[in-house]
Known about the structure:
It is a single chain. Helix content is 9%, strand content 34%. It is mainly β. It has 3 domains: 3-84, no CATH class; 107-159, no CATH class; 163-232, no CATH class. The strands form 6 sheets. The chain has a 5-stranded antiparallel sheet. The chain has a 3-stranded antiparallel sheet with strand order 8-9-10, with no helix packed on it. It is elongated and about 70 Å long. It comes from Aphidius gifuensis. Keywords: Chitin-binding, Disulfide bond, Glycoprotein, Repeat, Signal. Pfam families: CBM_14. This is Chitin-binding type-2 domain-containing protein.
Amino acid sequence: MNSNHLFVLAGIISTVSGLAIYNAPLNGAPNCPELFGVQTYANPADCNSFFLCTNGTLTLEKCENGLLYDGHGAVHNHCNYNWAVDCGERKADYTPLSTEECEYQFGLYPESDSCSTNYVKCIYGERHLAECTPGLAYDEKSHSCVWPDQLIPYCNPEAIVGFTCPTKVPKHTASAKFWPFPRFAVPGDCGRLITCVEGNPRLITCGDGQLFDSITLSCMDPDEHPQWYDQKL
């Protein structure tokens, strides 16, 4: 949406019962640029709110505490976490509305002060415990789950993955073929493998319906090795 549209939208606001509603022209046509569907547009004066068009009806919506609008991704009602939004020249209010469990009504936080494979997701001020993908640990700086070796010395990759990488692997083995990033099978787990990066283990999930082949040390589609797949079943 161009700046002319934004100025038109901003200039026709009227407030009814606390909700900003936009007056339609005398001919009854909507003021939204699109007549059908749902579209959102940044409020050039405020990063905490945005314009919402729903089938031609225009309203001004406000992001929940801890969220801001940028038009990219959405945690709740078209708004994203405040730390993930670049407001540019738009003004933003970062005042938290805290509860006993959460700083902001919406946010991501570490579970504790120690390295953890879990993290806290706050929704309307309530604490919800979430799990990282197996083999990952929560990083407070990036607000995401990362490889534990990226958090050394805060995290111990061997403790999280449950594996110690060898300093050498026998030649002419499948693991040696992947050196300097040797791979290893996970006992009792057909969907994952371990790879060593600079001497630290990483747990890799095959995904997409693939299974790990302990012979080739690779993730494969079941139809690529039907005999092996039948044995796993």
